[in-house]
Amino acid sequence: MVQADRLYVGWRYAQVHPDPGPPPSAPEPVRAEGGRAAYATSRELSAEHLAGRPLRIAAAGGGAFAALIMLCAVFGALPWAFAGAGLVACAVVLAITGTPLWRSQQHARARAEAEAVLAEQERVARERERLAVVRAHEDARKDWERKRSAYEEQREWYPVAVPNGVDRVDVVGGTLAGWTAAVTTMGAARLAVGARVTVIDLSEGAVARDLLGVAAQRGDDPLVWVLPGDLPRLDATRGLGPEALADVLSLVVSAGEQEGGTQDLSFDNSILERIIEVLGPGATIPRITAALRVLAQVGDPRDDLRRGLLTDDELARVASLFGRDATDRIVVRRAWALEAQLRKLERLATEPVHLPPSRLHVISMDRRAGVLTNRVLGTYVTTALTHRVREAPPSGRWDHTLFLCGAEKLRGDVLDRLIDACEATGTGLVLMYRSIAPHVRERLGRRGHAAVGFMRLGNTADARVAAEHIGAGPPLLVAEITDALGENLRDTADGYASTVAFARRRGDDLNDPVWTPLPEPAADDSVLVEQISTATSWGQSLLGTPEGKQSHRELVVEPGQLQELPPTAMIFTHAGAAGRRTLLVDANPGIITLPTAHTMEFEEYLREQQALPEEERRPLPEAETGAAAEAERPSRGGERPSHEGERSHEGERSLPADDEPPPPLAAPVNETGLPRVREALAELSASERLPRQARGRHAQTSGQWRIVPPLRSTGRHAADDD
After folding, report:
1. Higher confidence at residue 709 or residue 392?
2. What residues pair up with 169 in beta bridges, in sequence order?
3. Of the candidates 356, 406, 376, which has an alpha carbon nearest to the alpha carbon of residue 227?
4. What is the pLDDT of residue 407?
5. What are the C-alpha distances in Å from 223 to residues 160, 168, 497, 544, 580?
6. Can you state the angle between helices 80-153 and 34-51, rounded to 10 degrees?
7. Contact 224/429 with Cβ under 8 angstroms?
8. What whole-number distance in Å separates Cα of residue 327 and Cα of residue 324?
9. Band (94; pLDDT cuts 50, 70, 90)
């Protein structure tokens, strides 16, 4: 935040790296399906064994009958001719029943070998699937750890600066505590770079008291005037020409009148110019009011002659300035009004003092004085400073920053003159309004190059005007720390302590004082962090906030929401080439002391990350919406990724792709027996010994060939009876 050409208005909460959520859960174990396949194969073989039982019985009977014939022939019970015929018949029976049994045995052996090969392939596929799931889980875990590390190490608070080309900030609404935070945040950064800061505090709430502490901490003795008590030591019009002085005083007189035409203002200016011309270079406020009493015919002029305010010649010339008739009609009325207002400034510059050099000047109003008196004094200080700014040479951007707190108390023409003077000379201007009066609404962000910051609004009408000015847009993010601090933040009633009340008067017999040189500009943000931590209570106020990453809530721009903003929250909006930009910033100066506070703006950080080499770049979100970026979250653990070789549904097998290399832990597949198995299956499918009904009904089950024995005469297998 130590940059000479920038004004920082607060801090933006944003997470470049979103919370990745819980870590991926352990993958589900791959279900082994070999047991069910083995059970199916064993059941099929048992059914085939039952279906072949009649053939085995017939073959066993033929063999037993052949043995019986042989025994009978050997013992002579049967003739050998008859025995030979019986043996031939038994041999035929054995041939008829034995051939199907032998074929069934061969097919069962081929089926078992095919099932073994398929089971091995399934095991390899399951192993590949398991390893793929493990690798996917490891990759997801590493990706989660990388995103978690980026989330934990990231900084969540980014400073928000006024964009280039904007030389004025209008702050609307807010509490005294919120204004104190905003003035401290903006002013402390300007003082740190060696810029001049002037605060005109018309709020009567001492909103620059923390800024005074920061300035004193860095060795820059601030100058504080508390009016009307310090009027004798204030001379803002010293050195002004007669026309400029008349202009200042005529505007001061109009402070208590309604803003309207310029007729009375021109009359007042003409009267004052003529009086100042009569009084000459020594025209002071007491002498001017004495001349006005002569014109207004108030009191005895001889009293002013005895006090030395007027001479006899000046008295005669003033009395004859406008003639007797004009005096009766107009001049008396206006001179009386001028004298009534300017007499509040009669003590002005009556005790000139030696003042040390300082970069911070604060001029405030004592709330114990009258309302009209403070309005007149505020108009005088503002108008006189306007002329000082007009006469100053153009300076760098925000080299001189002027805060006008409570600007709604001044007339619109006074504000217009100040705005024009600051714009012409490059003086940065911050106007702070407690409410949106009609003359404030006309000038809100519309005159010159201005940005607008809306803080907590006090009434519904102001909130409605603010919502219309901001317009519709995406929800804004309010950090947890902003809400938590706002619950305990209260306005204080402390005022200012004058630093010029005890200054040495000019013209004494002592030697001129020797002042301490002004401190050098800060080299980095660490100096500003130390000053905020030690000189203000804002850094201490954050000690009780929740540790770790902060949560946030969304805020929609509506009148009701604007009335419930946290005290330090500000909706900062301005128009640019890319359209209107709206951010929610926190004006709390203590945020700079947090370890999660960044030193550069959010957009600058993103550009810096994109400019880094690929190996040094942190993962950035793929898409962003408005003041917050949203990154794509990783998929939750526990979901099995889709791989080749995974079963699509029950009953179908999908083998791994041929071009995928087998994992190193998987057992190799015996490819030597595959051709023989395929030939056996092809021969079985082409065999004509199996009935067509069997091939048509049970030829293929679950994508595999089955060996089916002949049907019974009833058209059913013996296994079907089970």
Report:
1. 392
2. 430, 451
3. 376
4. 95
5. 29, 24, 10, 34, 39
6. 170
7. no
8. 5
9. confident
The 10s digit of each residue's pLDDT in 318-374 is 888 876 555 556 778 888 888 888 888 988 888 888 888 899 999 999 988 888 889
- Across the chain, mean pLDDT equals 79
Average pLDDT of span 578-588: 90
Cα–Cα dist 593/261, whole Å: 51
CA distance 584 to 13: 8
pLDDT tens figures, 483-528:
888 766 766 657 899 999 887 676 565 555 656 777 888 777 888 8
Task: Please check whether residue 525 is in contact with residue 592, taking contact to mean a CB–CB distance below 8 angstroms.
Answer: yes
Q: How many CB atoms lie within 10 A of CB 327?
A: 19
Which residues have a Cβ under 8 Å from the Cβ of 70 and sit 6 or more positions away?
Answer: 83, 87
33 φ/ψ angles, rounded to the nearest 5 degrees:
-110, 5
Least Cα distance to 350 among 441, 234, 268 occurs for: 234
Q: Which residues share a beta bridge with 641? A: none
Most confident of 226-240, 558-572, 603-617: 558-572
CA distance 312 to 391: 35
Q: Residues 337-341: contacts with CB within 8 Å, 24+ apart?
A: 337/253, 337/268, 338/249, 338/253, 338/268, 338/271, 338/272, 338/292, 338/296, 339/289, 339/292, 339/293, 339/296, 339/298, 341/252, 341/253, 341/255, 341/256, 341/376
- Confidence grade of residue 660 (pLDDT, cut at 50, 70, 90): very low
**Structure-token pair, residue 29:** 């174990």
Instruction: Please give the DSSP secondary-structure letter assigned to residue 207.
Output: T
Lowest mean pLDDT among 238-252, 256-270, 317-331, 664-678: 664-678
Question: Closest Cα to residue 2, out of 600, 589, 588?
Answer: 600
DSSP state for residue 641 in the 8-state scheme: P
* DSSP β-bridge partners for residue 85: none
Backbone angles phi, psi at 107, to 5 degrees: -65, -40
Residue 480 CB-density burial (10 A; 0-12 exposed, 13-18 middle, 19+ buried) = middle
Structure tokens at 183: 């003035």
**Nearest-angstrom CA–CA distance, 450 and 369:** 33
SS3 205: coil
Rg (CA), the chain: 49
**What is the per-residue pLDDT for 61?**
78
Q: pLDDT exceeding 70 applies to what percent of the chain? A: 76
Examine the pLDDT at 25 and tell me if it is beyond 70. Answer: yes
Q: What are phi and psi of 585, to 5 degrees?
A: -115, 155
pLDDT of res. 48: 62
Three-class secondary structure assignment of 483-551: HHHHHHCCCCCCCCCCCCCCCCECCCCCCCCCCCCCCCCCCCHHHHHHHHHHHCCHHHHCCCCCCCCCC
pTM of the predicted model as reported, rounded to 2 decimal places: 0.73
Residue 215 is inside which H or E element, if any? helix 209-217
E-only strand ranges, 603-654: 623-625, 628-630
Rounded to the nearest 5 percent, the helix, strand and coil shares of the chain are 50, 10, 40
Tokens of 504: 């040495």
Region of residue 579 (left: phi > 0; alpha: psi -120 to 50; beta: else): left
Q: Do the Cβ atoms of 515 and 443 come closer than 8 Å?
A: no
